[in-house]
Design goal:
single chain, about 85% helix, rod-shaped, RD_transcriptional_regulator, Transposase_8, Homeodomain-like_sf, Transposase, coiled coil
Length: about 100
């Protein structure tokens, strides 16, 4: 919802919130706000796309974070096994 517009960003955000929450038709809300109904419809669609993209990115980030945490746990386990093996072989070589 950015770009050059004669309407401030805050007004557009508030208008989108009002359009989503109103029980009145979008055209009526637009008339009450003094904007073209197609302009308001464009703002709502842009907000929907932005929220969908943010949600999809968040889901992907969460999946990646889980996968990375799992990999860290595996690597820590491998490191512990190798540390124990090195200590064992060092002790065997010292005999």
């Amino acid at each position: 919802m950015s770009g050059s517009s004669r309407y401030p960003e805050e007004f557009r955000r508030d208008a989108v919130a009002l359009a989503r929450s109103a029980s009145r038709p979008l055209a009526q809300v637009a008339r009450e706000l003094g904007v073209n109904h197609e302009t308001l419809r464009t703002w709502v669609r842009a907000a929907d796309r932005a929220e969908s993209a943010a949600a999809a990115g968040g889901d992907a980030a969460e999946r990646e974070l889980r996968a990375l945490r799992k990999r860290v746990a595996e690597l820590e386990k491998e490191k512990e096994i190798l540390r124990k093996a090195a200590a064992y072989f060092a002790q065997e070589m010292g005999r």
